[in-house]
Write a structure and sequence with these properties.
single chain; mainly alpha; Arc Repressor Mutant, subunit A; 2 domains; about 0% strand
């Protein structure tokens, strides 16, 4: 299977991560589209035999960072976050809601690492490569994210506050 076919096979993973990261289907689909366009235009920069998935997620991360530099918006997660707790009974909607709010309350840097490691099942090394940060930084951000989630979900930390819309 050549790179174009491998890229097509990775689109569902790109969409899932983008939706969990942005929380809005349309914005996530736009990010995936931008990622695929950039990847196609820069495919000559991809080193054959290396991890194509990590390379695509790096392209997506860079596209996302470029968008954030242009504008800052409140991000929320949609139903793609529910995949994290899909094994829970359907009646456990409060847990899903609480997890969604807790994950959204994390700083962007911690949320990105958490989603790549937990949702996308990337190794620390792949996550570090994708985000362009040292493995130690991945480990510390993930540790902080998990601890904050544990505190919030156990009721030991202040719950995420609702923001007033102007």
């Amino acid at each position: 299977m050549g790179e174009p076919e491998q890229i097509v096979a990775l689109i569902p993973r790109l969409r899932r991560y983008a939706r969990a990261l942005l929380g809005d289907r349309a914005a996530a689909d736009d990010l995936v589209q931008d990622t695929l366009e950039r990847a196609w235009l820069k495919l000559h920069l991809y080193q054959s035999g290396t991890n194509l998935r990590a390379w695509l997620f790096t392209v997506m991360h860079n596209a996302h960072v470029n968008r954030l530099r242009g504008r800052r918006e409140e991000e929320s997660l949609d139903e793609s976050m529910y995949e994290l707790v899909a094994s829970q009974p359907a009646t456990d909607g409060l847990l899903i809601r609480d997890l969604d709010r807790a994950v959204r309350s994390l700083p962007d840097e911690q949320r990105e690492v958490l989603l790549l490691v937990v949702l996308e099942d990337m190794s620390y090394e792949q996550t570090a490569q994708t985000l362009g940060i040292p493995i130690g930084t991945v480990m510390s951000r993930l540790s902080r994210a998990r601890e904050k989630l544990r505190l919030i979900l156990s009721g030991q930390a202040a719950s995420p506050r609702l923001q007033r819309v102007k």
